[in-house]
Amino acid sequence: MKKQFTKKTCLKIHRIINEAIETPTLVLKCQSALLKCRKLIFLLCIAFIFLFITGCSFVPVSKEAITKSDQNERTISVLNNLIQVDIDTYHTYTQSIQASSSAHTQTLIAFRDEYKRQILTLSKIVIARGGVPPEFSRDFKGYVTSGYTAVKVKGGSHSIFQAMETNETLSNKYHNDALKVDLPGDIREIIQAHLRAAKTHLDSIKRIKHQLK
């Protein structure tokens, strides 16, 4: 019985393979459909990744920081996360500047330079408190936003500012989340100043994007 079942199964598989070979049009149709959907699938993947990033909160870091008994360690943890956010944003600005040919490129340069100053300010505080600031390179989140920015900047000036609007929205979110942590007063004032700058950037970028429509 077992041999008979095996033989019948093999014959059935052989017949299916022969039918597929004799009717290649089905395969070709499938390939054509996949090619047509490739761009849509790519865009959906980009959208999914950014929804994931936007949904990610600074709160997990904040919870970890809150459980630390040493306020200095807590402060260093929060500052290093903000430094990394600023580094990622700096690099996305560089991408946009390199692709931009509009009259508003100088605005992008000014905003990027402001992030560099913020990185230096926070890094000095971390070092003064005995910590080690992040290296000046992207983390995983930064590479994801870099991929998104790379896609958007190919669409011209309006798309460039659309990409930077997304990045500045994330920067605002992370700075707001950092202020949920119990930090020394002087550190809070610095983060609040950086948040005000991020809000100014976001408002300006939205205005320019609207002008470029």
Structure, described:
There is one protein chain. This protein is an all-alpha fold. The protein has two domains: 1-55, no CATH class; 58-211, Ferritin, core subunit, four-helix bundle (Ferritin, Up-down Bundle), CATH 1.20.1260. The protein has helices at 2-22, 25-55, 59-67, 71-99, 105-128, 140-152, 157-178, 185-211. Helix 3 (59-67) runs antiparallel to helix 4, helix 4 packs antiparallel against helix 7 and helix 6 packs antiparallel against helix 7. It is extended, with a radius of gyration of 25 Å. The N and C termini lie far apart (73 Å). The model is unreliable at 1-5 and 56-63 (pLDDT under 50).
The gist of it:
This protein is mainly alpha-helical.
Uncertain residue ranges: 1-5, 56-63
Backbone CA Rg: 25 Å
Name given to the CATH architecture of the largest domain: Up-down Bundle
Shape: extended
Tell me the domain tally: 2
Looking at CATH, which topology of the largest domain would you report? Ferritin
Give the tally of β-strands: 0
Order of helices and strands: HHHHHHHH
Q: Helical residue percent? A: over 70%
Determine the N-to-C terminus distance. Answer: 73 Å
Strand content: under 5%
Q: What profile does the largest beta sheet have?
A: none
Average residue pLDDT: 76
- What top-tier CATH class of the largest domain fits best? Mainly Alpha
Number of helices: 8
Assign the CATH superfamily of the largest domain: Ferritin, core subunit, four-helix bundle
Q: What structural class do the secondary elements suggest?
A: mainly alpha
